[in-house]
Amino acid sequence: MENIECGIVGFGFAFPEGTRDATEISRLSGVPEAVVRDKFGINKVYWPDKEEQTSDLAVAAALDCLKNTGVDPLEIDMVLYFGENHSDYQIYSVGPRVQGAIGAKNAWAYDMEAKCGSCVVALDQAKKYMQTEEGVNTVMLVAGYRNVDVIDYTDQTVTFLYDISCGGAACIVKKGYARRNFLSFAGMSDGRFSDMLLLPNGGTKNPWTKDNIDDDYGRYYRLVDPDLFRSDLAVVTVDNLINMQVKALAKIGKTLEDLDFAVNLHMNVKNHAAVIGRLGLPLEKSFYLCDYGHVGQLDVLIALDQAEKRGLIKEGDLIGLAGMGMGYTWVGGIMRW
């Protein structure tokens, strides 16, 4: 396959005006505020009102991206929605809604998802389309996320989900664009953990009925096997994130010693430091999302944008992207800024 340059032209974002800070999360959960802030790494998360749907956040981010980049929506050949499938309706495609709302009349749109690893996968898919499909030259990646609806702060087995936030993000990727160039990808999955974290009701296995519609247990994410989570998943996660970086780097003839900067999903303070340390980088060579929380698969774009705006990334830097998603899947990507 031809190795073409495939770069991000620019970004767009949308966040609700509402927030919940560490004090409020502490009050709702009973977890001490110092733990929420200093251990969980949460200063605040974004919180939507009832009218801010997942697709609305995606559309707002897409429009912001067009404004920031100056790209004509008629130039877009593909709209790739990589956001969460918890959206406006139970079975719904957000990509075509964004495509229509922004006037990208020449674009094909579709939804894809690798949970919170989706952004890195979407960057790889965009590049592969540009490498293999004639006429695919400009792709919009766009996502919305509002999983705040399915988090139960009173369930202290899922404290690792208290950082869940809300927002929209988008970027324009162009064939032949030399800056912010996506270079390589690696991914892996481990199906042992496929049923570990679930939203119990509302699917085909346990559909909503008049008898369970008020069942609070069934309407929120639940950790089905806390022991397996602690004994196995937590142990392998950092190793898997590092291994995907190593594999992605090897595809372009590089090693961890060549990395200049790292982008992680939001995770607790200890795990963030562990990942950056294992990559061989000081903490200042990363951006920590404590003022955003975990906006799911959007974290990667938010961190890249914020790191660039704050001067943490310089031209020519080799950047590692790390993501993981329920199921469980771990992904790594490499970019040249």
Can you summarize this structure?
The chain has 337 residues and is of the alpha/beta class.
Task: Show the helix and strand layout.
Elements: E1 6-14, E2 19-21, H1 22-29, H2 33-38, E3 44-46, H3 54-69, E4 78-81, H4 94-101, E5 108-111, H5 118-132, E6 138-145, E7 167-175, E8 181-189, E9 197-198, H6 216-219, E10 222-223, H7 226-250, E11 261-263, H8 269-278, H9 299-309, E12 318-325, E13 329-336
Parallel strand pairs: 4-5, 4-6, 11-12
Antiparallel strand pairs: 1-7, 2-3, 6-7, 8-13, 9-10, 12-13
Helix pairs in contact: 3-4, 7-8
Structural write-up:
The chain is an alpha/beta fold and 337 residues long. It has 2 domains: 6-178, Thiolase/Chalcone synthase (Peroxisomal Thiolase, Chain A, domain 1), CATH 3.40.47; 183-336, 3-Layer(aba) Sandwich (Peroxisomal Thiolase, Chain A, domain 1). 31% of the residues lie in helices and 21% in strands. It contains 9 helices and 13 strands. The strands form 4 sheets. Strands 1-7-6-4-5 form a 5-stranded mixed beta sheet, with helices on both faces. Strands 8-13-12-11 form a 4-stranded mixed beta sheet, with helices on both faces. The protein is globular and about 55 Å long. The two termini are 22 Å apart. The model has no long low-confidence stretch (mean pLDDT 96).
Distinct helical segment count? 9
Straight-line distance between termini: 22 Å
Query: What name does CATH use for the topology of the largest domain?
Result: Peroxisomal Thiolase, Chain A, domain 1
CA radius of gyration: 19 Å
User: SS-based structural class?
Assistant: alpha/beta
**CATH superfamily grouping of the largest domain:** Thiolase/Chalcone synthase
> Poorly predicted ranges (pLDDT <50, ≥5 residues)?
none
β-strand amount: 15-25%
How many discrete domains? 2
Q: What's the CATH first level of the largest domain?
A: Alpha Beta
Question: Could you estimate the helical fraction of the residues in percent?
Answer: 25-40%
Mean pLDDT: 96
